[in-house]
Amino acid sequence: MTETWDPFGTLRNALWIGGAQWAGKSTVARILALRHGITAYHYDYHDARGHNDRRIASGKPLPSSPDDMWVHPTPSDMAASTLAGFPARFEWVLDDLRALVSGRPILAEGWGLRPELVAPLIDSPRRMVVVVPTPEFREHQLRVLPRAGALPAEVSDPARAQRNRLERNRLVAEDAVRAARALGMRVIEVDGTRDAEAVADDVADHFAPFLSPLG
Hints:
Blueprint: H1 10-13, E1 15-19, H2 25-36, E2 39-42, H3 43-47, H4 50-57, H5 66-70, H6 75-98, E3 106-109, H7 115-118, E4 128-133, H8 135-144, H9 158-182, E5 186-190, H10 196-206
Parallel strand pairs: 1-3, 1-4, 2-3, 4-5
């Protein structure tokens, strides 16, 4: 169960962008931070650094090799493991956010910010939006951006590992969409026909009741 202790009211006033990897969440958050003078919190940055130290200290076992992470499991097993790990990681996010104090809402973005985890913290579903790429746009990214399909470690079967990772990500994204719709949260699909500024316009409009103009 999510701990809702909120000494500075930061969690209560936060805005949230969840969804899939490679949907442009970080870019949109950066644009909105610059436009509206708000602080953006990037989940991936913290999760790959300070949170990893906490993960190790917690004693949670890690895969013994990159193959055990990317090659041997099925995509469905990978997705289930990822989803099962999000609640503990979300508590570390909340610890980070509790330490931030701002006169404007904090905007938190990241694929680990799951609708069902955020829901107990917010007073309106408009405080969250889930952003996902369409399958066609994801395939386009893989064709034109080598890093979009790059693996984080060397494995014995790169082709299989990449297929596993992409399918895992698809399953995790679908889970986020299902949860968002069940909770009445908006889902934005990014198909590549509009640039990041235009997507940011949509997200800003969604968050408009909570974004006071600069002045």
